[in-house]
Amino acid sequence: MIGRKDILSIPYLKKTAFTGSYEGLRFRFAVVKKEVLPDGEQGKEIQLLEVTAWEGPYGFDATPEEKKQRLEMDFSEEGIQKGIDWLNELWNQEPKRWIAAKSNW
Fold first, then answer.
1. Of 39, 43, 64, 105, which is least packed with CB atoms within 10 Å of its CB?
2. Model pLDDT for residues 13-56, shown as the tens digit of each residue
3. Alpha helices in the chain (DSSP H)
4. Which letter does DSSP use for residue 104 in this model?
5. Dihedral through CA 14, CA 67, CA 55, CA 97, nearest 10?
6. Distance between CA 90 and CA 22 in Å, rounded?
7. Whole-prediction pTM value?
């Protein structure tokens, strides 16, 4: 399973995306900036953590968008843990799918 020790620190994630894989499940943690537009107010930019999952063997840029799954959450330690939990849940729901993807590499 993917653990917190497997994902790099918040200062690292502020600078660049982090990619990894677990038994055929490829993933990416990246900061995304979104503009929040409250009614009648000027927009405010916030940072979110976007976690993306897809089947290998290809990397993030070479994988078609329709084959990627995404989840956005707060950019915080709790958000990182939620992303890890989500990835582990994806793997546990279909382990044969991810293992089969890995065997095709």
1. 39
2. 999 999 999 999 999 999 999 887 776 566 788 899 999 999 98
3. 10-15, 77-93, 95-103
4. T
5. 140
6. 11
7. 0.89
